[in-house]
Every structure is written in C-alpha cells, then in structure tokens.
Amino acid sequence: TGVLQTIVTGGGQTAVIDDAEDLGLDAAIARYAREDLDLLVVEGFKAEPLPKIEVARRVLSTELLCLNDRNLVATVTDFDVSPDVPHFGPGDAPAIADFIAAATAR
After folding, report:
1. Cα–Cα distance, 103 to 91 (Å, whole number)
2. pLDDT 10s digits, 23-48
3. Which pLDDT score is estimated for 18?
4. Would you state the pLDDT for residue 16?
5. Which of 61, 62, 60, 81 is nearest to 72 (CA)?
6. Residue (of 58, 95, 54) closest to 75 by Cα position
7. What residues contact 1, with CB distance under 8 A and at least 6 apart?
8. DSSP letter string over the chain?
C-alpha cells in the first residue's frame, strides 16, 4: 500500500495499524498488549494451546474447526453441536460474558 502505519483516533480511542511482517502470538502480545489487561481475546491462532470458544454460523459452515481440540471450552452457534462443552446461542451475550468471567476468575 505504500503506507507503513495508519493511526485512527477519535471518541477516546486510538487504533494503530502497522504494515509489518506477520507476527506470532507471543510477538504480537509483547509488541502491542498493555500491562494492565485483565483479559486478552485473540482470533486466528487455532494452533495455539489456548482456551478456545468457537463461534460458527450455519450460513458459513456447520463444521466446527476446533471440534477435536482439547482446548475447546465452549461453542457459540446458531445450530446444534455435539462437543461436550457449554454451548451458547449467538444472542446469549450475557451468558457468554458470565462464562468467560467465571473461567477467568479461577
């Protein structure tokens, strides 16, 4: 793109987008994560040994990518699933938040 960095700011928030090499999870956290975070949500690191909540919509696929991942802790779908983990519907945001809060309080 010719742009090395884009900064968007307003409404009390700032986003920085760097045109750089792909970072692994540890490198991205070291570079961008703040010290005062209580919870970090990441997307796109399926191979990492992290607790996972898989979100899937019927219109895209009814196959779960993390079905056999031992780190799968919950699913959020608009279709029935069979993993032996808690399941939530897309409209269950308060229940999902409660689940995450309970899991991180341990």
Report:
1. 20
2. 889 988 998 888 998 888 999 888 99
3. 83
4. 86
5. 81
6. 54
7. 19
8. ---SEEEEEETTEEEEEE--PPPPHHHHHHHH--TT-S-----S-TTSSS-EEEEE-TTT-S--TTTT-TTEEEEEESS---SSS-EE-TT-HHHHHHHHHHHHT-
